[in-house]
Amino acid sequence: MTNNKTITKSIHPPLATLILLGIVLLTAGITFLWATEIGVVGDIFTYLNLLQEQPPMWVKAPMVMTRFLLLPSITIFILVFVITKVSPKPSSWSQFLVVAILLILAIRYVQWRSLSTLNLSDPLNGVFSISLFILEMFVLFSSSLQLFLTLKVKDRQRETDALSRSIVEKTFSPTVDIFIPTYDEPDFILRRTIIGCQAIDYGSKTVYILDDTKRPQIANLAHELGCEYLTRPNNDHAKAGNLNHALPQTKGELIAVFDADFIPTRNFFQRTLGFFQNDNLALVQTPQSFYNIDPIARNLGLENVLTPEEEVFYRQLQPIKDGAGSVVCSGTSFVVRRKALESIGGFVTDSLSEDYFTGIRLSSQGYGLVYIDEKLSAGLAAENIAAHATQRLRWARGTLQAFFIKSNPLTIPGLNPLQRLAHLEGLLHWFISLANVFFLLMPLAYAFLQIIPLRATTDEFLFFFLPYYITQITVFSWLNYQSRSAILSGIYGLVLAFPLAATVIQVMLNPFSTGFKVTPKGTKSDRFSFNWKLALPLIILFVFTALSLWKIICICAVAEMHDSLEMTKKMRGLNLGWIWSAYNLISIGVALLILLDVPKADLHEWFNLRRSIKLNLTTATTTQTYWGTTTRISQTGADISLTQKIEVLNPNEIIPANILILEENLALSGLVNGVEINEDNYTVQVQFKDITLEQERQLISMLFCRPGQWKRKNTPGELASLWLLVKVLLRPKILFERNPKITTIKVRQS
Q1: What are the DSSP E strand ranges found in 189-252?
Q2: What is the distance of C-alpha 127 from the center of its chain?
Q3: Using 50, 70 and 90 to split pLDDT, how confident is the model at 679?
């Protein structure tokens, strides 16, 4: 859905666009002169090619047996492996050693690539070779910048513990307005968010629903639950405009913002408000967690294995940015000081990423921003791959609009160089999608154009490339605090590579062509659904990559039969082509499975929450009492595993159930929906009925608001990740049943 008002700007001329077009035109001009042999351009590249063919000795692999060439890789692997085991969690000394090793290896690799591997024998090979090198160096620069910033990472756990005492002891108790902006989200989602905000253990708070669609049912909901309701006559500037409209109508010293689907834990303010004792502090940001499974994990059938895609950002990058003084305000689950916000004119309205640029403006005015790496809220992750794509493309567009507005973190007055570097790393991240697309297409050039963009022997790869690659793979998940493996990171980047690359180009040419698109929430589906729009470029690429793999293998086979010096020289580096094609083929296959949305029949989320239960079942003849434990529970029902055998129930009889959740002292009523019998285990399925508002508050608090309930999940290792992807390809979810066979007795419902 799109808000009525789109963001428009009149920047004449857009400098970032002109620079981009200038680079493209300059590159095209040099290529034209080289291809047509006009002027001295061709002679220059001929000379450079001679230098590539006769590089310095120190960028050549030693003339030794292959096993000795593996010694650098083995040695460095052992070294970094020992470091990560001695220091399982990165500390200052271990982080410094690992970063130093990686940067040294990166410099060594760059020297080899730049002085020995470029193929400038003709314009066609040269264009592809130089393009690959430039994009590779761009990715390497971005990752190296991130590595450098890693040395500045900040952990605020102890500080949070100390400052929270003032809130618990009520020596510091500022008034807080809680803003819940909404645009067309279903009322059942808003309902639990409101109840969750009201359940926060803090007295001086007021909850406001900011309804940008003027829905009577939302006004009634606000009245029913006892919170304030605000709306406005238009939808100017989307979410930012909605928040700004509420500012003059409220008066709390602090403002907490939660998206319509985000529910805080009861101790949210206990853990955040203490920082505001520092008058110079403007904003405290917490991570985004999710109470449902993101579509990538769900579609692959790896719900209990994969970490959410956002986990890398909140577990690794935000602490890095906190250390650099450049915390990213991420739009929800944050608290901001009203006085500071008003001093910059409210939330920024000239970009889709109003949260990000609001944080930048606060920083530029000298205010401090803090990130607490503690899961204090949870919301709805995108529920299908289309919604996932909509969300990511909006983030990309909004962030890249930085180049075209006054709040550009690279030019806005008031930021120090370290802050600008940290923001630069975030901006460069989106351009990597262009490199990803090029890397996907490159094997096709090997096969169909006979291009060899990287000339290197196997010995050279073993000596220069392998040490850097092995080290990077070994420490990748260690550096990001077990939030993502390198293999899985590549898959996640591939799924939206083409639409992200298109978005990047579109933004650089026409940055304000699209308005704010709200991520759809509260959807369900009872069937498999394939996203053909996102899949089409990947399907085409899959077919051509398969053909390229076959063709490169054939070319290599022919080259082996003509064992001559000329053929060896000509085919130098071609072996990389079939390895590259094979890797891309597997990755694209997994990406296509991700684009197959699996059914999601229930609007409400079910939790594997264990609670002791006293269950009374009333049949036509008797009332029986059973004891058991919940195996799954939601707002609508529960599955209860009994400690004893249940009497056979009449499938045609309506059976009322009274449930007492002992730990919560919560009594609920409902109807038996069925009984599952798996060997000697009996599980009763109960659907809740006639829940009062007070019972609903208790239930939501139990399900969503318990302090410490949103736990971190660690990513599988690299080999485990590879094996998981292989299993996914061999046993796709659409073809194989993952659950054991059980007997179910359905019971009549009213």
Answers
A1: 205-211, 228-230
A2: 33
A3: confident
Measured from the Cβ of residue 534, the count of other Cβ atoms closer than 10 Å reads 20
Residues 6+ apart with CB under 8 A from 512: 6, 7, 8, 9, 401, 404
In which element (H, E) is residue 640 found?
Answer: strand 637-642
Superfamily (CATH) of domain 612-714+725-730+742-746: predicted glycosyltransferase like domains (2.40.10.220)
pLDDT band at 4 (very low <50, low <70, confident <90, very high): very low
Contact 323, 617 (CB under 8 A): no
Residue 99 to residue 147: CA distance in whole angstroms: 6
The pLDDT of residue 375 is: 96
Helix axes 532-561, 497-509, angle to 10 degrees: 110
Place of tokens 């392998």: 466
Residue 401 pLDDT exceeds 60: yes
Q: Whose CA is closest to 347, among 248, 277, 271, 414?
A: 248
Strand ranges in 357-439 using DSSP code E only, listed in sequence order? 368-371, 377-378
Token couple for 333: 């689950």
> Dihedral, CA atoms, 738, 712, 357, 240, nearest 10 degrees?
60
674-677: Cβ within 8 A, 24+ apart? 674/744, 674/745, 674/746, 674/747, 675/646, 675/649, 675/744, 675/745, 675/747, 676/639, 676/742, 676/743, 676/744, 676/745, 677/742, 677/743, 677/744, 677/745
3-state secondary structure of 283: strand
681-688/656-661 β-pairing: unpaired
Q: Classify strands 334-337 and 254-257 as parallel, antiparallel or unpaired.
A: antiparallel
Question: pLDDT (tens digit, 9 = 90+) per residue, 316-335?
Answer: 999 999 999 999 999 999 99
SS3 413: coil
Domain ranges within the chain, ordered by starting residue: 15-151+428-597, 157-381, 612-714+725-730+742-746
Of 592, 582, 389, residue with least CA distance to 501: 389
pLDDT tops 60 at residue 586: yes
CB 696 within 8 A of CB 732: no
DSSP state of 652: T
The conformation of residue 655, written as its DSSP 8-state character, comes to -
CATH number of 157-381, picked from 3.40.50.720, 2.170.130.10, 3.90.550.10, 3.90.226.10: 3.90.550.10
Question: Do residues 357 and 369 lie in contact, with contact meaning Cβ atoms separated by under 8 Å?
Answer: no
Q: What distance in Å separates the CA atoms of residue 609 and residue 376, rounded to the nearest whole number?
A: 18
Confidence class for position 187, pLDDT limits 50, 70, 90: very high
Which token pair is 78?
């052992």
Distance CA 662, CA 614 (A): 7
DSSP assignment letter at 63:
S
| Residue among 739, 746, 738, 741 nearest 685 (CA) | 746
Return the ∠ at Cα 520 (arms to 517 and 526), rounded to 5°: 150
Task: Pick the closest to residue 713 from 445, 550, 401, 477 (CA basis).
Answer: 477
Could you tell me the CA-to-CA distances from 562 to 218, 565, 569, 570 in Å, in that order? 76, 9, 12, 11
Please name every residue paired with 614 in a beta bridge, in sequence order, or none if there are none.
627, 660
Instruction: Compute the distance between CA of residue 426 and CA of residue 410 in angstroms, rounded to an integer.
Output: 11
DSSP labels for 574-626? THHHHHHHHHHHHHHHHHHHHTEEPPB--SS--B----EEEEEEE-SS-EEEE
CA–CA gap between residue 329 and residue 276 (Å, rounded) = 16
Measuring CA to CA, which residue among 292, 301, 308 is closest to residue 598?
A: 301
| Predicted confidence band of residue 302 (pLDDT cuts 50, 70, 90) | confident
Q: What is the DSSP string of 717-731?
A: -HHHHHHHHHHHHHS
Q: Which residues neighbour 443 within 8 Å (Cβ) at sequence distance 6 or greater?
A: 545, 548, 549, 552, 577, 580, 581, 584
